[in-house]
UniProtKB/TrEMBL annotation:
CDD domains: S2P-M50_like_1
Compartment(s) where it occurs, according to its Swiss-Prot or TrEMBL record: Cell membrane
Source organism per UniProt: Saccharopolyspora halophila
TM annotation in the entry: 6-24, 31-54, 85-109, 130-151, 157-182, 203-227
Lineage, uppermost ranks: Bacteria, Bacillati, Actinomycetota, Actinomycetes, Pseudonocardiales
A GO BP annotation: proteolysis
Main location: membrane
Signal peptide: none
Cofactor(s) needed for function: Zn(2+)
Protein name according to UniProt: Site-2 protease family protein
Length: 251
C-alpha cells in the first residue's frame, strides 16, 4: 500500500499556500489579513477537493480496483482528477464569488473490480465523508486551540464550506455521491434512468437552489444545522465570509 502512495509536490504546494495565508491572518495590517483569509479559504478548499477525490480512490483501491494506482489517483495530484479546469479552477471560482461550492473533479472507478455492492456504496460515501470530517476537525480546532481572530474566521468559513460540500454531495441525485451510495441497490430500470439523468441532474439542482429562494433557504438552513452539530461558530463564519468576499468587491 505504501508504495502506491506518492504525494504530489503540487498538493504540498497548495498546503504551503494555505499555511502562508494562515500566517498572514495573524498580522494587524488589514490588507495582509484579508489576503491571508483568501489564501486560507481558496488554498484550503483546493486541498479539500483533492482529499475528497483521494477518499474515493483509496476506498476503491482497498475494495479491489487497483487501476486507481496506475491512474495516479493516489498521489493527491489535482491534475489527475479529470479536467483541471472543471475539477479545480471552476470550483475555486464559484467559491471566490460566494456561490455554492461545486463538487469538483471525479475519479473513474472500475466498478466491476469492486468486491461487493457495499464496497461500491462506501466508495461513493468516502468523498463527502472526507468533507464532513474536515469540517468537524476545523470546527474542533477553532473551539479548542487559541488563535488570532483572523485565522479563526478564515478556518471557520472554510469549515462551513466543507459542510456545504457534504450536504450537497450527499443528496441522492444522479451525478452526486449520494446517488452513488444507493445506486448499487437500485433496480436495473432505475439505474438506467439514473445514467440518463446523470449529465443534467446536478445542473438542474443548482438552478433550483439558486432560482427558487425557499429551496435555497432550506438547503442552507440544513447546512447550518449540521454545522451547529459539529460545533461550528456562525459568528466567526460570517466574519470570515465578509473578509473573504471583500477582496472580490462583493461579486
Amino acid at each position: 500500500m505504501s508504495s502506491a502512495l506518492r504525494i504530489s509536490p503540487l498538493f504540498l504546494g497548495m498546503i504551503a499556500v494555505t499555511v502562508f495565508g494562515g500566517v498572514l491572518t495573524t498580522m494587524t495590517n488589514q490588507v495582509a489579513l484579508t489576503a491571508g483569509v483568501v489564501l486560507v479559504v481558496l488554498g484550503g478548499w483546493a486541498v479539500s477537493l483533492c482529499l475528497h477525490e483521494f477518499g474515493h480512490a483509496i476506498t476503491a483501491y482497498r475494495g479491489g480496483d487497483w487501476t486507481v494506482r496506475e491512474k495516479g489517483y493516489l498521489t493527491l495530484d489535482p491534475r489527475r482528477y479529470t479536467d483541471p479546469v472543471l475539477s479545480i479552477v471552476l470550483p475555486l471560482i464559484f467559491v471566490a464569488i460566494g456561490g455554492i461550492p461545486l463538487p469538483g473533479g471525479a475519479v473513474w472507478i472500475n466498478h466491476a473490480a469492486l468486491r461487493t455492492r457495499r464496497t461500491e456504496s462506501m466508495v461513493s460515501l468516502a468523498g463527502p465523508s472526507t468533507n464532513l470530517i474536515a469540517g468537524m476537525l476545523l470546527a474542533g480546532a477553532i473551539a479548542l486551540i487559541p488563535m488570532p481572530i483572523g485565522l479563526a474566521a478564515a478556518l471557520s468559513y472554510l469549515a462551513f464550506l466543507q459542510v456545504i460540500a457534504f450536504v450537497l454531495n450527499i443528496l441522492p441525485i444522479p451525478g452526486l455521491d449520494g446517488y452513488g451510495v444507493i445506486e448499487p441497490w437500485l433496480s436495473h430500470p432505475a439505474r438506467r434512468f439514473g445514467e440518463k439523468a446523470r449529465p443534467w441532474a446536478p445542473l438542474a439542482l443548482f438552478v433550483v437552489l439558486i432560482g427558487i429562494p425557499v429551496v435555497g433557504r432550506l438547503f442552507f438552513s440544513f447546512a447550518y444545522f449540521v454545522f451547529d452539530v459539529l460545533g461550528g461558530d456562525p459568528t466567526l463564519t460570517s466574519f470570515g465570509n465578509s473578509l473573504f468576499r471583500s477582496i472580490f468587491g462583493g461579486l
